[in-house]
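A quick aside before the break. I want you to see a complete sequence-to-structure record at least once, exactly as it would be stored in a machine-readable document. Don't worry about memorizing anything.
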Amino acid sequence: MNIARKFAGFTLLELVITIALVAIVTGFATQSFGRWVEQSKHRTLIEHYHSVFAFARWSAASQRQLVTVCPLSLKNVCVDNWQRPISVFDDSDNDKQPDGGTVLREFPLDLDGFKLHSRTAGRGYFQFNPEGMTHGAMGSLVLCPTVTTSGNMSYMAINIAGRFRVEHDEDADGMIELSWGTKVYCSS
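That is the input. The structure line, written in tokens, reads:
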């Protein structure tokens, strides 16, 4: 009895089609994963800034004194460069320098893929009074992506009561229109 034996395996055409499909699926997965990583980093940064301002507000109210939030220069003076670490410090004499050179807390940042700029009329700092409300003028920060245009732009404001709020570029057009009509863009 002669039994015909068939060899199992892929033909060259089947192998090429399978490799092409795997490459296409991998391309979509990689792109989606990259977007997910960027969105996750964006959410983490927003939470980080929220904790910075919550800590500053709490410090001002619990210590019953003026607290300033800003990036510090090498000479320990507030600067409007929000790519630097953010410092929270007592500022009883309102000179925008840490009292006695003591910083309550410094928040290092990992802004890789993002840029942050302030909307503080050039002041570059935020202050909280002994009641935990803003001292002087209010302000905001704008968080912008630097590597993509995925819509991960956010407007972070501190209101007169000292509360932190965030608005996002939901339609990914690179602009956020605030409720009073002002349009906020990422600066070049």
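Two observations worth writing down. The longest strand covers residues 139-145. DSSP finds one helix and ten strands in the chain. We'll return to this after the break.
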